[in-house]
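Feature request disguised as a bug: please show the residue count (406) next to Coenzyme A biosynthesis bifunctional protein CoaBC in the output. Example input:
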Amino acid sequence: MSETRTVPQVVLGVGGGIAAYKVCELLRRLTESGHQVRVVPTADALRFVGEPTWAALSGRPVSTGVWDEVHEVPHVRIGQSADLVFVAPATANILAKAAAGLADDLLTNTLLTARCPVVFAPAMHTEMWEHPATRANVATLRSRGAIVLEPAEGRLTGADTGRGRLPEPSELFEAARRVLRRGAADPDLGGRRVVISAGGTREAIDPVRYIGNHSSGKQGYALARTAAARGAEVTLVSANVSLPDPAGVRVVRVESARDLAGAMDAERVGADAVVMTSAVADFRPASSAASKIKKSGAAPAPVELVENPDVLAGLVASREKEGLAQTIVGFAAETDDVIANGRAKLARKGCDLLVVNEVGGGRAFGTEDNQAVVLGADGTAVEIPFGPKEDLADRVWDLVVPRLPS
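Example output, currently without the count:
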C-alpha cells in the first residue's frame, strides 16, 4: 500500500509578464503555510524574475526546460504528481497555448499532463483581455474544467489603468487554498455566472451622517471567494465594505439601497444565481441636507423616513415577470423567533433559499464565524453549524448547485 501524502504539492507556473514580481509573495505564502511548491517559469518569466529567486523562495530547484533531469521525465511527472497547478501571471500567450493544447515548453507540457485542479490568474493589458480571441480561449479553458480567475482592475504597465491587473498575492493565496481545500472535486460552478451582494447600505442624512448598520460584508465576500474557487464567473456588488477585492471576482461598489437596487437589477441579467447577503436599510431620510446639520441649542428637527425598495423581492419579481431560469438566495438576520421569522420572510420574498442567522450579542456581524439555517421554498430546512464563514459559504453553494437551471 502506498504511503498517504499529507503535504500539498503545488506547481506554480509563472508567465512572462511584469506581474511576475508579485508572484514571489504568493510563493512565500504557499511555502510558509506548509505547501511544497515546484516553480515552473517560462523562459520569458525568467527575464523578469531570475531562477535564483524562485529557488530561494521555494527551497527547491527550479524546473525550466523539458531537457532538465531527463531521466525523471519532468514534462510528464511534474503534472502527474501535483495536487494543484496554479499559473500566475497567465499571459494571453499562455492562455492561447493552453486552449490550443500546445506543448512547446515545460509549463505547457505540465498543463497537458495534470489531472488535478488547474487555476489560471490572467494578467495583461485591458485590450488583450477583452480581445475576442482571449475571451474565446478563456471560455474554452473553463469548458474543460479549468478555473480562470477574472483579473483585477487598476494600474497596469506604465500609465495605463483598467481591467487586466493581477490580483493581490494575499487574495491569490486564498484562491489557491480554497481550491486545494476542495481537492480533486470538479469545479461544479464552472460555466456559471453568479451575482452576490455584500455589506451594508448607508442612507445620507447630511454629507457627514448616515443611517447604516453593522454588516461587515465578510459573509458575502466568503461566498464570492468560494464561488470563484468552484469555477464561477463572479460579480460582487459591494456596499461600504473595507475588505480586499477577492481574487478572480469583479467588484461593483455602491453606497445606498437605491444604488444597490440599480446595480443588482443591471447585473442579474444573464446570471444563473443571485445571492443577496447585503444588509439593506429598510428606510432612508425623505431628504438629505446639502450641508452638515449644526447644533443650534434647540431640539433637532425629526428626520422623516421613507421606505426603501425591497431589493430581494424586486429580483424575484423581475425573474417571474421575465420568465428567467435563475436561482435566487436571500439572507435574513434575525434577533428572535429566528425560524418563524425566517419562514415568514421566505414566503413573503419568494426566493428559492433563505439563509437565516441570529445576530446581536457579538454574533454574525463583523466576526469570522457564523451559523445558520437554510430554509428552502420546497419546505426543506438545513442547519449549518457554527464555524468559519468560508465553511458556511461552501454549504450554501452545495445547496444552490442542484437548484441551478439546467
